[in-house]
Structures are given as C-alpha cells and as structure tokens.
Backbone:
C-alpha cells in the first residue's frame, strides 16, 4: 500500500496536521480548503473583498487540511510569492496523485513554513492575501469557571458543591 500524505506509516489517518506543520523541522507547506458545510457555503469561492463586505474574515475553524508536504528543494531560494504561484499552478495543472481536494481557487489557504518562519496566504481573486495569525487562532471554548457557573446556576445544582465552588473560584 502506498502511503498517502495524511496517513501514518501504518496506514492510520494522521491527526492534528496543523500542529505537525507548525512543529516541522524543515520547509513544508499545507493546503487548506473550506469544509463542506451548509453554514459556510457563502464563504466558498468568496474574494477577501466579498468576505469583508459581509463583515467576515477567513476563520480557521471553517477549513480542513487537504494537503501537507515538504516544500520542494528547488524552491528553497525563491520568494514566497513565486512559491505560492508555483503551488497554485501545481494544484491546478499537475495535482499530486494523493490530493483529494478540488483545484486551488479563491477562498483556499496555503500555509508555508520556510526557515522556521510561518506565513499563511488566502487565495484571492487576484493573487494572495497574507493572513496574519490565522494558525494562532484557537477555537473559542468556555472557561472552566464559566462551565462551573453555568452548572451552579442550573436548577438541579447541589447547593453545597456550588457554594464551595463559588467560594474557591469567586463566582
């Protein structure tokens, strides 16, 4: 069995590819495309200008990694804009056999890690737009304190436990 980009050597799917990308010790790239989800259908193929008109920005939670690989050595000294153009051409004209996404288009994201520096780029209607901090965004999760407060405010709350939790955490 030929190993695919998103499988471990044992054929099992890899998990947390964005973290693997960020931790890579060599030059790598990652292609991200919008998940198939009715809630974000209006973001598919939308230019950055169109997103801003709607009051939106690209949200990493709406994307899935569709490809990850080492950056070819022949592009080592090329500027980012040339590498991005080469990747765009590659994923439209001579796609890797194990790439299962659609041809690169507006609203897709390409992340590069070169010489330890990470940059993320939105495929726009003309060229690419930098997405500062795109991979830094963490999904919003309620804090432990907010979860405790919600539980204590619930009708089935144990008053003794909640009183202690409120005292300890100043809820």
Residues:
């Amino acid at each position: 069995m030929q190993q695919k980009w998103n499988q471990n050597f044992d054929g099992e799917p890899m998990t947390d590819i964005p973290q693997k990308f960020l931790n890579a010790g060599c030059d790598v790239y990652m292609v991200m495309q919008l998940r198939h989800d009715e809630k974000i259908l209006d973001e598919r193929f939308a230019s950055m200008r169109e997103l801003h008109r709607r009051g939106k920005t690209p949200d990493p939670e709406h994307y899935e990694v569709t490809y990850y690989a080492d950056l070819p050595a022949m592009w080592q000294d090329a500027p980012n804009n040339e590498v991005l153009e080469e990747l765009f051409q590659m994923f439209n004209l001579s796609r890797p056999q194990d790439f299962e996404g659609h041809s690169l288009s507006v609203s897709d994201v390409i992340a590069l890690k070169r010489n330890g520096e990470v940059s993320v780029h939105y495929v726009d209607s003309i060229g690419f737009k930098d997405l500062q901090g795109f991979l830094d965004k963490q999904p919003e999760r309620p804090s432990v304190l907010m979860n405790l407060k919600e539980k204590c405010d619930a009708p089935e709350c144990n008053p003794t436990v909640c009183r202690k939790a409120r005292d300890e955490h100043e809820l």
